Amino acid sequence: MRDQLRISGVSEAVIDDAVLILSELLSNACRHGRPLEDAAMVGDGNVRAAWRLDASGRLTVEVTDGGGPTRPVPATPSVTARGGRGLGIIATLSDEWGVRDGTAGEVTVWVVLTTGHRRDDFATRVTGPVELFGDLG
């Protein structure tokens, strides 16, 4: 994925975001989703990951699993919670994201990134600008 995106002219910053998003989507599918019901994959615990770069510079990353007991929605975890931050991170990094239902109970979470620009770095997008040194006078 990295090499193909790099060859297509996608910036390293956007590639880093896409890889982090893919990792989070795969983690969520493994933790919360059921395996796909494809006859070739039965019993293997498989999910499907895909990405595509369209002519307008929009990168879509998606992961499909066999669905789960709940719909993927952002959580509001406590400070000490061990999880629940993934979709919030995805929402912060992406231009848009959503959930699509498929056949046989499949659920796909998709994320779109615009490759032509990147807003600020991740820390700035999450916390806002941080002033390291106040008025020292």
Can you give a write-up of this model?
With 137 residues, the protein is α+β, with helices and mostly antiparallel strands. The chain has a single domain (2-121), classed as Heat Shock Protein 90. The protein is built from four helices and four strands; from the N terminus they run ααββαββα. The protein has helices at residues 2-7, 12-32, 86-93, 122-127; strands at 48-53, 58-65, 96-101, 107-114. A four-stranded antiparallel sheet has the order 1-2-4-3, with helices on one face.
Q: Count the DSSP helices.
A: 4
Shape: globular
**Range of strand content:** 15-25%
Q: Order of SSEs, N→C?
A: HHEEHEEH
Quick gist of this model?
By secondary structure, the chain is of the alpha+beta class. The protein is 30% helix and 20% strand. Helix 2 (12-32) packs antiparallel against helix 3 (86-93).
Secondary-structure topology with pairs:
Blueprint: H1 2-7, H2 12-32, E1 48-53, E2 58-65, H3 86-93, E3 96-101, E4 107-114, H4 122-127
Antiparallel strand pairs: 1-2, 2-4, 3-4
Helix pairs in contact: 2-3
Keywords:
137 residues; alpha+beta; Heat Shock Protein 90; four-stranded antiparallel β-sheet; 4 helices
